[in-house]
Amino acid sequence: MSNLLELFKETSALYGGNASYIEYLYEQYLSNPDSISGTWRQRFDDIHRGSTEDTPHSVIVERFEKLAISEPGKLAKMQGFTEQSVKKQSAVARLINQYRVKGHQIADNNPLGTRNTIPADLEPIYYGLTQADMDTLFDTGGLCGIDRLPLHAIIQTLKEIYCGSIGSEFMHIVDAEPKMWIRKKLEGAKPDYASHPEKRIWLLKQLTAAEGLEKYLHRKYVGQKRFSLEGGESLIVILDELIMRAGEYKVKEMVLGMAHRGRLNVLINILGKCPTVLFGEFEGTHTSSPGVLTGDVKYHMGFSSNIATAADPIHLTLAFNPSHLEIINPVVEGSVKARQDRHGVGGIDAIVPVLIHGDAAFAGQGIVMETLNMSETRAFNTGGTVHIVINNQIGFTTSNPFDARSTLYCTDVANMIQAPVFHVNGDDPEAVAFITQVALDYRMTFHKDVVIDLICYRRLGHNEADEPAATQPMMYQKIRNLLPTRQLYAQKLITEGVITDETVDAIEQDYYQRLSEGQVVSRPIVENHSYSYSARWEKYISREWDQHADTSVTLERLQYCNQRLHDLPAGFELHPRVAKVMEDRNKMANGEMPMDWGFAENMAYATLLVEGYHVRLTGQDIGRGTFSHRHAILLNQQTGDNYIPLQHLSEDQGRAQIFNSLLSEAGVLGFEYGYSSTVPDKLVIWEAQFGDFANGAQVVIDQFISSGETKWGKLSGLVMLLPHGFEGQGPEHSSARLERYLQLCADQNIQVCYPTTPAQIFHLLRRQLIRQYRKPLIVMSPKSLLRHKLAVSSLSELTDGVFLPIIGEIDDIDPFHVTRLILCSGKVYYDLLEARREANLRHIAIIRIEQLYPFPNEYFKAEIEKYPNVELVVWCQEEPKNQGAWYQSKHHFYEIIDENIPIIYAGRVPSAAPAVGSYKTHVNEQKAVVQSALYGNKEGRKNEF
């Protein structure tokens, strides 16, 4: 036997180095059995033995080795291979495969003419193929539908497909099906533009529009910023092709997100914004929309329209975007998800997200990675996004890729989700149009993300007043010598006899004429009021926060909801601790125990749902709750299966979406903001694991949540639950940075509340949806209060109560004997209450401010007036003096409290960090805070007040 093995090693065409050829043939067999010869097909059929599963390639080789030993005669019949011929064929197969893997690295897709050196493994000689082999016929493996070609023709075909104007990255995809699909698309028949001159003329018109707008604005509004698209005009070709192709798929809506580069061009030439309106924005004569107070610069503004396609119209929405570039990504995805949910079955095919990026931002900003990472999770999947990178090959003033990124391509971050990336030459509009079709087809077929890397350049500086040659002299020497894309393509069409010089000029003049007359220059706009933003949100505009809302619920409904929350599937075994929580909640529903926070919060969701409202909760531990109080998602301890009782309340209930999210703040909060700003009739909640984790999403808070309405008239009812409270857990687990939200408050833009009882959170959450008032709600939610013996409520507070912006004194204290009045918010109230009761200080009253903004002036004034003999007012807080509510709220106190009554601060001293790290130090500090509020000193001695 050993001699037979040695003989096999020396003579078999199927041994050792030729194993790759067998694998190559096997790949062909798996994708299309008919693409290989009958002899090989029979062998692979025998190996599969009727199985529908893939057989490991190592097993294939092993079985052929056994065949060579046991039945050597059969090998001789396999197409008459010699060892040399099989080695050559194997070499060709590996060369073909390597072009598919690495051809993009030497593609002719850079308008600036830069090309990489050909890697050694793309040279035929690397595989032992010489000039003598160039005319030899080899099996192509079905390349372009041709079975056999001379080697020189194979190489030429591979260069045209993989090294021309399009460089395709897709061989990194693990799943064989999409990888094979892309290969067939690229190697199949291309659009025959030569036979369709009308299509080529349309492409020229698109380029003329893209270039024409920029030239017109440059002449008319000299020196004004517009962030020109010049050098990247093919973006308009991509978007137009995308929309028309989407029409063929019966897509109903597309939501676009992009930063400012080329935005005005997209607004005018794609979305059909009236040029007269744009000119008014340049000239300062445009009137803002309702609800807009400050407005925003023109290249941040959003727009929506209905564009005619060969099929039905498509509703386009361009999201408002701040200068924080990629931060719009999760916001668009959230808006798309809301629209898909509203559409129902087939939503991911009906609404498609499109994100337009800058090259440096795509590589440099972490929010891109967060959004990509969200793309295939249950909570945030939108069925695939078409990403378009306007690759100017320069970031701001930095063009050297070694300064801009640590990767070969600016798009390499997309490899993390195995998205195909198509690097296309912006100066080849036909290649751009073709690859756009492939990209959308991929998205609609596999419902996964896909990237078009539009390699172009920036003809002008970062803005029109910038001189780019000051920092990039060599790059701009090249750029100044380049003909614009429109001129290059026009010359090509003229040379090929498709069009004349006169027609080219006529197209250009026609565009300028319509533009100067203020005509819409995009594809036809179709009126359709069913998509109107204002139609869904109109009743929420210009509403006051203190409108009445009946948030009470009957006892029967509370008990019904509780009973349904406890109806678990047969055999569903809860963890003993969770079972105890559920048992206690039954007692709470029956009035046998005071209600805790978890019961009241779940009752808020359940009652809203049975009333037909929709609820969506996301966060890193939203199901259980970081502090194990919510238990909205239950786990079977025997099987690991989960069950969400809030989804099984009644047949006609609202939709409950509850998802534990990925470990992201900016991405997830941005997504939920986008979702909430699209649907006004859904309670959308994001909970931070700890309140201070929201720091990681500060851009979303600053640029969207707090200012979206005043800049863009964009309303949102988003709720942020931010666990807050000083329990000695250190600087990073104490403060939700209440002061930061209060600093952002103005024009009734947001609500900031610090509820201290279960009934308060019940009514607060229900009020957020039942009122015809949509402003973001920031909640300082509790940690220790979740189970505090005093932080409880009765059933009657749910059946008869409302949310109280101010909660006055609850003990039996004579208001006429009160000389010291303590104002506070949140957890410190219970520390003050217990200390006052213990010392029996009957001259002190304590008032809780549960809504810090909009400040409830009338409620506060009414409460203060109950105490006519007050001599001193104290504001007490746990947070350091420079944090918390003191500096941002004290002006309200001075406006309402008699000017002759002193108002003093009691709390921690100013600090750079929110809290100390030592628990013992924390306890001493907390005691001092309470003592200074009650007595005016840290020792607890009584003073004149």
Automatic annotation (TrEMBL):
Domain of life: Bacteria
Keywords, alphabetical: Oxidoreductase, Thiamine pyrophosphate
EC main group: oxidoreductase
GO molecular function: oxoglutarate dehydrogenase (succinyl-transferring) activity
Pfam family name, one: 2-oxogl_dehyd_N
Alphabetical list of Gene3D superfamilies matching this protein: 3.40.50.12470, 3.40.50.970, Multifunctional 2-oxoglutarate metabolism enzyme, C-terminal domain, TPP helical domain
Listed EC numbers: 1.2.4.2
Family stated for the protein in its record: Belongs to the alpha-ketoglutarate dehydrogenase family.
Known role: E1 component of the 2-oxoglutarate dehydrogenase (OGDH) complex which catalyzes the decarboxylation of 2-oxoglutarate, the first step in the conversion of 2-oxoglutarate to succinyl-CoA and CO(2).
Protein name: oxoglutarate dehydrogenase (succinyl-transferring)
Source organism (scientific name): Methylomonas rapida
